[in-house]
Structures are given as C-alpha cells and as structure tokens.
C-alpha cells in the first residue's frame, strides 16, 4: 500500500509527502525462471521495504 499527500498552504508553495510499502510488507516479484529448475533454486527480486520522501516545491 502506498500513500501520498500534497499541501498548498498558499499560492506558489507545495509540500509533498510520499510513502511506499506503507506497512513494510515482505514480498517477492519477478522470478527469473518460469518453473522451478532441477537444482531447486529460483532467482527472484524482492520488493523494497518502506520508503518515505518529502519535498517542497516553489512556483514563481
């Protein structure tokens, strides 16, 4: 689950907050092989843990 918020306290200024993997869930995605090979090892990519970013934007 991801979440974001934008706040414009006045014209020309925007505060942003973004969170990915909000509940810090463990998981895998994009396995390399289509089936389990005879060696029994499958390479897969894990999803990132929780990441949070914030920014301030000035428009003039």
From TrEMBL:
<protein>
    <recommendedName>
        <fullName>TonB-dependent receptor</fullName>
    </recommendedName>
</protein>
<keyword id="KW-0813">Transport</keyword>
<comment type="similarity">
    <text>Belongs to the TonB-dependent receptor family.</text>
</comment>
<keyword id="KW-1134">Transmembrane beta strand</keyword>
<dbReference type="InterPro" id="IPR039426">
    <property type="entry name" value="TonB-dep_rcpt-like"/>
</dbReference>
<keyword id="KW-0812">Transmembrane</keyword>
<dbReference type="InterPro" id="IPR036942">
    <property type="entry name" value="Beta-barrel_TonB_sf"/>
</dbReference>
<keyword id="KW-0998">Cell outer membrane</keyword>
<keyword id="KW-0472">Membrane</keyword>
């Amino acid at each position: 689950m991801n979440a974001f918020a934008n706040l414009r306290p006045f014209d020309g200024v925007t505060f942003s907050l973004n969170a990915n993997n909000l509940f810090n869930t463990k998981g895998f995605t994009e396995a390399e092989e289509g089936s389990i090979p005879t060696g029994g090892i499958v390479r897969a990519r894990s999803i990132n843990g929780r990441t949070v970013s914030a920014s301030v934007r000035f428009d003039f």
